[in-house]
Amino acid sequence: MAKIELENFDAFRAIEGQTLPAGDWLRVTQEMINDFAKATMDFQWIHIDVEKAKKHSPFKKPVAHGFMSLALLSKMLGDVLVVKSSKMGINYGVNKVRFPSPVLVNSRLRLICTIQKIEKFGDNGLKITSNCVVEKEGSDKPACVAEFISLMFE
Fold it and tell me: DSSP string of 55-99?
């Protein structure tokens, strides 16, 4: 369930510039990493070969794809914010993406997000620019930092 539920775009515009509540922790499992590997066809052993990672990886366990933490932004944002009048949302793009810290299997991640800018888009839409930080539990460095741009339509 979302931590903030807003009725409509007017209510959403009122939180421009604000930081949303921190998301719940999400555990990154080996199954999730394997599914992401299948979806992206990136089968590098550091992601999917548990035994080889134990022996040869400096981390001694599998590491999630960097783009997996980026791909989780939509889900994690939807967990902290719902605009009830919205009929559809679309990922529009990202700027300034970085992966400062690797995400090892069974790491827990959560989103810290600030709604930087909300602009009118077409007749019934908004273009939202959000500053997103995917925190990794127990780490000083985040898993992902990105300026995330999305569209929302009523």
Answer: HH-TTSS-B--HHHHHHTHHHHHHHHEEETT--EEEEEEEEEEE-
HSE on the CB side for 55, CA within 13 Å? 5
What local confidence, expressed as pLDDT, does residue 1 receive? 54
Residue 68, CA atoms < 13 Å, CB-side half-sphere:
28
Q: Is the pTM of this model over 0.85?
A: yes
Sequence letter at residue 80: V
Q: Which amino acid is at 60?
A: K
Identity at 82, one-letter amino acid code = V
The tally of domains found in the chain comes to 1
Cα–chain-centroid distance for residue 125? 22
- Whether 60 has a pLDDT exceeding 70, the answer reads yes
Segment (H or E) for 108: strand 108-121
How far apart CA 90 and CA 2 sit, in angstroms, is: 18
CA dist., res. 148 & res. 110, Å (int) = 15
CATH of the domain at 106: 3.10.129.10
Handedness of CA 103, 109, 114, 116 (dihedral sign): positive
